[in-house]
Amino acid sequence: MDVHEGRDQGSGLKVCIVGASGKLGRYMIQHALDRGHEVVGVCREQSVGKLAEFDGRITVVPGATDDREVIRRAVEGCDGVLTVLVPWGMRGYSTGTAQAVLDHARPGARLVFSCGWHITRDGQDVYSLKLRAFVKVFRWVARLARIADIDDQVEACRRVFASDTRWTVVRGSDLEEGESQGLPVWSRHVGDPVLKSNSTRRVDFALFMVAALTDDELIHEAPAIVGRQTPSARSAHPATATPARSAHPATVTSAPEESS
Ligand SMILES: NC(=O)c1ccc[n+]([C@@H]2O[C@H](COP(=O)([O-])OP(=O)(O)OC[C@H]3O[C@@H](n4cnc5c(N)ncnc54)[C@H](OP(=O)(O)O)[C@@H]3O)[C@@H](O)[C@H]2O)c1
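# NAP complex -> structure
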């Protein structure tokens, strides 16, 4: 079994949150402030009001997250960038967002990106029929309606995996609201029994993203996470040692139906 527990430490960083006004983004802001980080948030102009609760405590840079100039200004001087990757529309929004962050974050900055289990880094993930069917239907319906393009998120992550930045791609299970259960546990591959419950509190997904900023063991990893109080996480015996890194990390990304 390839199970890990994240570490939780560090404070006082300057952190940019790209996609700050969404549900995940707002949880990340709160966790970052709780740790004493300075926060710069990027969100669409029409969503600035959703950040009112943080007035006076964060800097907001309004604009589209795939606007390179917006990202250049927002990430300036930041030690870390937390990016919510969402494949809205049909014009490569996720890819443009990821590329802007990769290009403009200062060298050495910690870059942490969010996505779902459907993203695979090395093709070694094993997906359930249910998840494969869901992704297939969602991909088709979202494209037909021209609201989202899953392949845009796949391409965004492919670029992140191929970059020589200090990246982590956090792959979320199904999400639910509710009080924190603590830092999720993770595995390198979907299909690991520890992930079977396929559920994480959104507040804890955000916690994992923020904690990843200061966990160097997560650099160049694509952890698939699950809530630490879920039945599958509780019945596993999380190893504390991290297995040796592959000498030749694979950079293949594909959607579930192509990978299993
Ligand atoms: N939802 C799930 O069950 C689930 C499961 C696994 C992983 N994830 C991952 O978790 C992350 C957050 O997902 P979430 O579902 O929880 O969403 P979320 O946090 O509410 O974030 C949605 C983001 O998309 C932006 N957005 C909404 N409509 C848009 C549009 N038309 N054009 C551009 N941006 C738009 C929102 O910005 P505004 O505030 O401006 O609207 C917000 O930043 C994603 O990376 C996702 O892949 C989600």
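# post-check
The longest strand covers residues 110-116.
The chain has one domain: 3-259.
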